[in-house]
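Supplementary Note 3. Input sequence used for the single-chain structure prediction.
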Amino acid sequence: MVCIAAFIILAIVGVFVAIAAIFKPKIWKSYTKALKKAWGCLWKKVRLQKCETGFKEDVKSTLLSRVMLKHPKMVKPLSIIIEIISVLIVIIVIWAILTAIKSLLALWVFGSCNVTKPSACSMGAEVCSIDEAEPTNPIEATGRWFTEWGEIFEAIPDKFKTYNADDYHFNYIDIKGSESEGLETAVDIFDPGCVVCKSSYTNQKEAGFFDEYNVRLVPFAIQDADGNYKFKNSEIVVKYMFATEQVRAGLSVKIIDKVFTEKDEDGISYQDKFNEDYSTEEAIKMMEKWLKEAGVKEGEIKEIRKIADYPEIATKMDENRNIIEKELNVKGIPTTIYNGGKHTGLWKKNS
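The predicted structure, written as discrete structure tokens, is reproduced below.
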């Protein structure tokens, strides 16, 4: 292990040696000689051949030369320590390489290099992530590391899969109230509290996406591993959208359109008000106000209020969650299914 660790260290410090060699050329000569020896030893290890003991002893002698003269009794324990450090260096480097490979695979498969917390990956798509529980101890962290590999390999076939929006039996809301003949079906999964979902919705609206497809809106309130909702009032907005759809088909779109595209009298986005300011009661009051403005009668609003609390609505939400997280392996939203593909992240006008 000493020769392998030596090669790793020599490879890492090579850049600094190259700079120093500009001023002292002899340093580079000595460095390349040691690197060649280390590489020769490493190459023999790879081919399962015995490494020359000379190089290993040279390394130890170099590190322990002064100790041999002044404290000869310390040579043996220090030699053991060098062996242990060498093993640790090799393990750390192998772990780092595997982690890098895992991150790249996750980025390719999920659009994020972080499987557990997708939004933490700066290289990934703009998403509101569906986060899993963070490990609380080293044993859990190790187990989670291996579990992530399993999730990645399980999801790799999805990259080569053709997605058909009609294949997924979501509880959805038709953005037009009814589907038009001759248009392809698209599924649009969003969270009312998600800022990226708001931007995607606005982009889609401005680009005419909702006119080009029969878009099925799937309102989805993101939850963490403990069942808590990521955004303050997303759950009640989703419930009211489904309840409104049962009483007045096509009118529930009015709610999400207001949340995503309009502002209050102070110029503050309604999404910000729902996420940060409104209590549940205030959020309900505002949605019912919008429904009244749209012509919904008081008796119908009372019916919507009752239906929003029905277990059937919660069941619809759970059924959608199962499709999103289990069948589609979605790690973040917005996610849109159209043109045979699954597109996660901010929908742009040139998509």
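The first strand starts at residue 128 and ends at 129. DSSP finds 13 helices and seven strands in the chain.
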